Amino acid sequence: MKIIVIGLNHKTADVDVREKLAFNGPKLEEGLLRLSELQGVEEAIVLSTCNRVELYACVKDPEEAYGAIRAFLSEYHGLDGPSLDRSLYLHVDREAVRHVFRVGASLDSMVVGEPQILGQLKDAFEFALERKTTGMLLNKLMKKTISVAKRVRTETKIAENAVSISFAACELARKIFADLSGKAFMLLGAGEMAELAAKHMMNFGVKSVTVANRTYERGCELASEFDGRAIPFEEFLKEMVFADIVICSTGAPAYVLHREEMQRVMKERKQKPVFIIDISVPRNIDPEVNELDNVYLYDVDDLQGVVESNIQERHKEAAKAEDIVEEEIESFEKWLFSLNSVPTIVALRSKAETIRREELERLMNKCPELGEKQRKAIEYMAAAIMNKLIHPPTVALKEDVEDKDALIATIRKLYALNGDDEENDG
Amino acid sequence: MGVLFFELSLTFYFAATIVSVIELFRGSKATSRFILIFAVVGFVFHTATIVLRYVVSGHLPIVSLHEASSFYTWCIVLVFFFIEYRYRLDLLGPFTMPVVFILMLSSSVFPRGIRVLPPVLQSSWLGVHTFLAFLGDAAFAMAFGIGIMYLIQEHHLKSKRLGGLFQRLPSLQLLDEINYRLITLGFPLLTLAIITGAFWAESAWGSYWRWDPKEVWSLITWFIYALVLHARLTAGWRGRKAAVLSILGFLCVIFTFFGVNLLLKGLHAFV
Questions:
Q1: Which of A161, A177, A290 sits opposite B158 (nearest CB)?
Q2: What pLDDT, in 10s, does the model give residues A251-275?
Q3: B160 touches chain A (CB under 8 A)
Q4: Check: CATH 3.30.460.30 for A2-160?
């Protein structure tokens, strides 16, 4: 039995291919069930997100399974073979395990370290679990993947710094203000970007929202979305006295706020700090405003710079995460190896042997009066009992049966042959 | 015994300072915990030193320059624990422990003998006046450390280079707020110290105010902190300006403490 990964992601396929191949809504259940019924596929999980469509499976023969699955995907999603071949990858055994670990730890993501993928992976696993398309191997693989992802999260700083512009803005705001709740927030212009950034800010508990827009009606519309208040654009300077965070995207061709005006605003607000984010291109706020005390002005390029340096930080951390993944692959392989019949037979025999020796010793200590002849007889009997008891499972392990993995697992469980590592990482 | 405790305390403050430097460059939970542990152990030995000296000499050990700077250091560590407990600021240790260590080191180089207190100084004012002054100055020392943290963080935000300490330093607002609190704690203490000092001077030397260098420099320090508070309330001098002033104020405190005693001899000079 081999673990394989077949799929495509943002690196190998364009969005139009990914879209076509996605298992959305009811397609997921149907697709999963049909895939798991394919010839040679024992276990299956389907992971379908906007950046990747992947099938994790246990199969007898990877090449054969690849052919069957590829044929199914092409028929089910109506995609021709060549365009599928360009995008699909196949990983087997160790490579497959590595791939799944890396996906779960968000090392294979478009934005390295983004946290959603682990949740999506858990959902996919649970979905398959409920429909009973998984078995011992994939269950173990998934549990291990989740624990690897957690280890990466706690032992590296891979998910620490913000890597989107609006998140970066929120993070900056939290280094200026101790607490965003209760801060007054102002939107200059009511563009889409402003709206998005406003939503992020609201999530951090910003208190009141004021919208100043050139078209007053649009301003009112946006204000009502956030339970805010619209004001005529001409009055924004007066209102700025009360605003702690300002997002500006008016689309004006020139600066709408200059240093002198801001200086007056700051004097009126008694120098209380203000964070201004100018996301308009061309810029709407004179960069000199940043030179004023207690004013922190960031434009799109500044935020982009923050994001880029954060991404670099993440890539540094990713190297550490790769080491963790390699370590965990070793431990998973060890577990896989223990599933082979030969080590199981050896373990079973040595366990029985230990019991026999211990019991004999105990008896001999208790009854030193036994003569040489009796001792020989008792030893012979103990060996005979032991051999007769372990004979049937040994024979069963040597046979070539359908559900070998399950049988091995059962025997290991019945005779308690699993080492400590089995219980640790469930 | 006392000497041994003093050296042990100095050693632990030194260890805390070394870990502080490590914390600045590659901080972790372990380093910040070690700074605190070393500081606590150092503080315990330090307290023992002071208690022993009190028992031997029969008065608060703040008469010689050695005793005074040791006691001042003790007050700073006390205020540091308070701020640490109250706010759990990241990186507070690295901006405090070096100051603590340097003051303790300077204490160690002054003559350590226990002097007999001159009769004019034998008064209960001794404890009250000096304790108020030292506690106030300790609050200013912490405001100095916080002020430096503020300036670094502000520089990060203004220059838009957000590497290094940016992630671990607290927010500007919090730093500014603690700085303000420390000064509002230190200022009344300093004021009371000056007032009690005047009464003591009257009873010991027969006049309330004699313009001796220490008095003059205390007054200058008092004016600087009065300016910090006044400008903050009226003109909104907060943030960077407040941080710069609190750094300047602390330099005055240090000069009043060492400079006046070593360079300008006056009545106040420690024995």
A1: A290
A2: 788 898 999 999 999 999 888 999 9
A3: yes
A4: yes
